Amino acid sequence: MKFDNILEYIGQFGPYQVRIYILVCLIGGPVAMNSMAQVFFGAASDHWCAVDEWDQEVKRCTDERNNGMMEDYLSCIHKYRNISIPVAVDDNGEVYYERCSKYEIYTNWSDYMIVNQTTLTTGCDVGWVYDRSMSTRTIITDFDLVCGKKSAASLAQSMFFFGVLMGSLIFGVVSDFVGRYYSFFFAVTAVSLLSLANAFVPSFWMYTLLRFFIGVVNNGSFILAFIIGTELVGPSMRNVAGIVIEMFFSCGYMLLAVLAYFIRDWRHLQLVIGAPTLLFLIAIPFVPESARWLISKKKFDKAEKIVLKAAKVNGKSDKLPPNFIQELQETDTSVSCEQGNGGVLEKTPTLIDLFRTPNLRTGTFILMYNWFINSVVYYGLSLSTSGLGANPYVAFFISGAVELPAYFLCIPAIESPLGRKYSISGFELIGGIACLVTIFLPLGAWRTTVAMVGKFGISASFALVYIYSAEVFPTPVRATGVGICSMSARVASMICPFILYLDDVWKPLPLLIFGSSAIIGGLLLLLLPETRGKPLPETMQDGETFFTKIESREREMSTRATGASDLGRTGGIYNYSYEA
């Protein structure tokens, strides 16, 4: 007997599992807010060189803003900027004030300021003045991340995503060693305390360091919530459980937009994000250790107590075999004997084995590319909502909201006649095409709408590619295959902030990269096998066979005028047979 057999008796997703599942999934909200907070922490604001001679006048302008007189504030600021800051013309013919230079000789004080007739300019030697009409304080204004230090904000976000990568590696190993329960609550406590500490950092480098550690434990808490949630349920509900937790992430995403709208100081916003996470410690008595993990560690007595409690809460105590623990122990013993039969164990496949044979190697590279691109486009669209021409808070809220229908649609798409790969490919193509169309639209409602269509498509494909990858790799290297794909996604998220800064080179360049890359990824997926309704590969040879005929499909696709007629097709080269 295995644990999945026990769930058939006590219920695959009964009241006991639902209660615990919701508790652990709630962490998705704070995780999303920490992941996306940089959008508001590092919000760009107009800036120009500070001038000593009118420092007090600028403070008076700021007082007008603080008193709610925004129009007077803007008029006041414009007057002083107009007489001391050079102007320039951008590629679109629009006049703007220089942000990194000022007139070198410009004042002649009497009753008011008069600019001398000079074209000599100098750098911002005494700092900058910031337009605080949208945000009263950001890391940009606190640490002067402008002009020569403009890319530093991207570095901070990349360090956060590097922490996410490390969290994936660390907490997977730690949770296997000490258990899901202790790892989860350590991560939740750490992310809360680090978030609170981050609100008081005195320097940019301290901020960047703490963001790295927040990334480690933030992602660790989400991974462990995912593991606990999916290990609770039976096979028929596992895919649904894996997708629903993403909806909690989306809700946190939307909540961040609301909080940021009312809290315009990044330090206060960080406190509001971090403090409520401590409330999760209240859940300690209600979240048990994973029974699957306990069984894998031969801690059958503790596992028995959890199973009996689950059966009682689900009202299935009478369905549970009285000797189920003995049957679990016998199964575990027989498996151990089989593995040791003959005294020689078969060599365990490793990461290198994914790249030894041609078809498995090609399939692995295609999946790694797709994870990479899904991550780049997802975070690229998420982190750039302020550049769509709409209200940045509204655009960010919509960006989170479109994920909910995307995830809802994933649930029927998993078992639809189109299958996994065509569903992923279709969603990814929608995302890529929408990014390219966005390039040609003016700033405003239409540009925002089409960009959100792209976000919808890429959110759905990102969720589905995880499920597909977990099915298509052979069993001995399944976790390794998903792990290397996940690592490529984390690397992509680290690179993404710097791709966004390519708009300084050419405005449409980031969207062009996102769109074209997603389209290529969607088309490459069509070369891979379908997994819906197919026996999954159990050995390395099965895996090589499962990925076979990729070259044949490449030749076949190149001779077609269109592949649309193949959607939903069964039979032909897409049918594979397997030995039991």
UniProtKB/TrEMBL annotation:
It is found in: Membrane. Residues 111-533 form the Major facilitator superfamily (MFS) profile domain. GO terms for molecular function: transmembrane transporter activity. Its main location: membrane. Pfam families: Sugar_tr. The keyword Transmembrane applies. One of its GO terms (cellular component) is membrane. It comes from the Eukaryota. This is Organic cation transporter protein.
